[in-house]
Amino acid sequence: MPTPQPAIFRENTPHQYFLEFHLRARWQPEELRRVLGQALAARAPETSLVLAFGRDAWERLAPQEVPENFIAFHPVLGKQDRIAPGTQGDILVWLHGERHDLNVAFAMEIGRALAGIATLELELHGFTYLDSRDMTGFVDGTENPHDEEARAAALIPAGHTGAGGSFVLTQQWMHDLERFGALGQAEQESVIGRTKPDSIELDDAPPTAHVRRTDVQVDGQALKIYRRSAPFGGLRQHGLYFIAFSREIMIFAMQLDRMFGCADDGLMDRLTEFSTPVSGAYWFAPPVESLTALFGDHAG
Ligand code: HEM
After folding, report:
1. Measured from the CB, is residue 272 less than 6 Å from ligand 1?
2. What CATH number matches the domain at 11-299, 3.50.50.60, 3.30.70.1030, 3.40.50.150, 1.10.3720.10?
3. Which of 4, 145, 281, 290 minimizes the number of CB atoms within 10 Å of its CB?
4. What's the predicted TM-score (pTM) here?
């Protein structure tokens, strides 16, 4: 099986940096390979890198390696005018590590290298907040799979095109913390479906609770994803950059449909009353061997 990008699974790095680029019309694969390949040489060993591509860009870069069912993100038109918008880009760069300054220095190199062929559509500094809490104050990641289970959830299995790679969903969510904070703690807990201080699952969580909308099962089997989201922002604006990895895009799509009232039961995730996505994209994070073939030894 080809080697997954190791930084996908490297946890406990306090600083995250996310960049989404859109390639300009008439970009050429050879030029992207050259400029990105050169920029990647500037990475400090302390900075972890994950690279992923939108469907159109990947199809031109490596037409033989397009995984099955790789689609661009389409907006999810939910109930009550709640929408998960699509802002599909071409290149996703996720940097993480102990040092924010090293992430930024490397991001600057990548930005300079791509300036002639791409525009930067999203740039966010994510960070570990308190003891791995989202800015709503709830622990994020409790039910995340670990080790072999994380790899099984995240990676396209051997024997399939793109094996060792991973589908990625990214969404920037903007929180309305004033509104969420106006709820009492018990009601906040029923929105999420877990207790606030210690993240214990509620036995009586309503079907609209976030954990019940996203706990997707087919024929009694739980369909897991591997989440690596990070809070961003400060006093004025704040939210979550949702980033998750899956062996199948369909699992993300089912979760989003269930959150936005598009599943058979028509129920909405109550979290969408208090947080709104402003971006949305699907990506493919290729295995190391594919990246080095395209961009050279520094890409792994
Ligand atoms: C504002 C955005 C979001 C916030 C603040 C948020 C926060 C949380 C929190 C606090 C939990 C419970 C603790 C845990 O198990 O991690 C959780 C669970 C989970 N979330 Fe989210 N989440 C957000 C968006 C999403 C989205 C967009 C998806 C999927 C497309 C998702 C998928 C999941 C899954 C699969 C679980 C575990 C469910 C289970 O099996 O118990 N989340 N999230």
Report:
1. no
2. 3.30.70.1030
3. 145
4. 0.98
